[in-house]
Amino acid sequence: MVLLKKIPLKTSLVFILVLMTLSFIYYQHMKDIIIQNQMDRMLLLYNSVRMSLEQSATGEKFVEDLIGQNLRTAAIAAKFKLDPDIGNIDNQELVELSRQLGVNHITLFQRTADDIVGVRSSDPKDLNVSSKGWDTIYKVFHQLFDLQDVDVGMGQALPHYWSSPFDTATSNPESVNKWGYYYDGTTNYIINPFVHNTDFRTYQSLTGIEDAIRRLTKENEHIGLDISVLNSDKLMNRQHLGLNPTPSNWYSERLVLFGKYRYKSPDDKEFGQKALETKNTVFYTTISEGKQVFKSLTPIHGDYIKYNAAGTPPLIEISYDYTEIQQLLQKQFSNTLLFMLICIGISLAIIASIFILYNRNKELAVQDVQDAYAGDIETLFQSIREQRHDFINHIQTINAFLTLKQYEELHSYTKTLVDEIRVVNDLVNINNPPLIALFQAKLTQAESKQIRFEYAFSQMEKVKLSPVKATDIVRLLSNLIDNAFDASMELNPENRFIRVEGEVVHHQLQLKVMNRGNPIAPDIQGKIFQPGFTSKQNGKNSGLGLHIVRQLVERYHGSIQLKSENGITEFSISIPLKGVL
């Protein structure tokens, strides 16, 4: 508790506030780094998925084209097996033909007045099915019946033939098939053999994008990873207008093309649109399945995306359980808080130590001043006791003059007494006990040497609160006055004169000591402050006085100047009183 009381409260609060601010900035910086690292990981995963798509696209296209060519071969073989007139064909015949040709089913489509309908089929579900709602395929049927080259911007086009990508059957949404359509004008129907995607999906699962997504998901299952390729049109609820819109149950209308889309959120539509507009990855945090999820959506562009007839890029969706990021942030926050508390503790200890040392030095300085004042005051009291003794003697003498009626002698005696009292009053006005004691002694010394001694001081009470010790001021003036005494003694008594001035101006203590005497030669002025140097020939001077003066002035970061000309030598001292006035 004693240590805490010694700590400066305001300084400590400011320091703690600055430290907390720096810690908060550091925490925010680390938070940004952690999130950026997570974003980089998601981008790496996106690139892995994209590369898997690109690499598997060529192989998948080759396999699909190979299946498409086999379907064309099966259709040509069926043409030679079947009667050119659909009226002479029954469904059982198509069942047997499908088995012989190695396809799952065969359907025969015939043009009517306003539609193209499945009239015969080995699959009962395809009987009497209308193709009017099949936008792209309905257009293909008309081009085939008109013996035109098929051109719909997708699928596999060969002479008198077109094969669609694997897609969902209208008659059976649970089944994904690949169809081939053949017509060369020798029959009154389109031959449509098709196979289920069982083998192709197995190929995709083992070597394609599904396998890549499965592996990446398993490698990151500890953070609840979700990777999927989404149909952006379906995500945006966007419908492409056409004469014959594609049925919603077709594979090309499915939301999830590859992977698993478990963490759905209403925000996906907004950020998906932003990703498509900017053509860049967007990152965002959302709530899904009751948990906070960090997600990214990235559009992918490329001809290898088969289920994209409308031209809108699919989106790769990657989701992270935000718990991992929160755990990292919590750990970072705990480390930052611990670091801040340790720094605050160390800082407070340092501040307390500095403050204690400062107070201790201050107390020592105050003690030194008090000791100096105590000695000076004791000297002053001794002087007062002496003056009291003298005062009694003066009263007795005055009384004797009155008794003897020697009025002229009384007048002369009291005049001398008044001059002495005036001197004492001037000393008291200095308002600095050490200086009063110094000048009382120097006045007596000057009188004995027949030197006219003057002094003038103002605002010296301000020096009491400064770090400048009273004893050092006395040492400065004593050495300079003693030098002035020595220089004055070289003159006749009537020419001997010394003046001492002191004042505080603009936070500066300024002292001057001037005297009449022989000037100091310029070549000697640069040497007189050196220890042991003296220009006196009597051997009584040690040459240390001015050296001591310069050391004291430098200790207080002050300055001293010497000017000696026209019979007047002047020492001027300036000492800063830093921030105490």
From TrEMBL:
Name of the molecule in the record: histidine kinase
EC number(s) reported in the record: 2.7.13.3
Gene3D superfamilies with a match to the protein in the record: 1.10.287.130, Histidine kinase-like ATPase, C-terminal domain (3.30.565.10)
SUPFAM superfamilies the UniProt entry points to: ATPase domain of HSP90 chaperone/DNA topoisomerase II/histidine kinase, Sporulation response regulatory protein Spo0B
N-terminal signal peptide: none
Record-linked CDD domains: HATPase (cd00075)
Keyword Phosphoprotein recorded: yes
PROSITE patterns tied to this protein: HIS_KIN (PS50109)
PANTHER family listed in its UniProt record: SENSOR HISTIDINE KINASE DCUS, TWO-COMPONENT HISTIDINE KINASE
Organism: Paenibacillus naphthalenovorans
Keywords: ATP-binding, Kinase, Nucleotide-binding, Phosphoprotein, Transferase, Two-component regulatory system
InterPro entries to which the protein is assigned, alphabetical: HATPase_C_sf, HATPase_dom, His_kinase_dom, Sig_transdc_His_kin-like_C, Sig_transdc_His_kin_SpoOB, SPOB_a
Molecular function (Gene Ontology), one example: phosphorelay sensor kinase activity
Keyword Transmembrane helix: no
Catalysed transformations (reactions): ATP + protein L-histidine = ADP + protein N-phospho-L-histidine
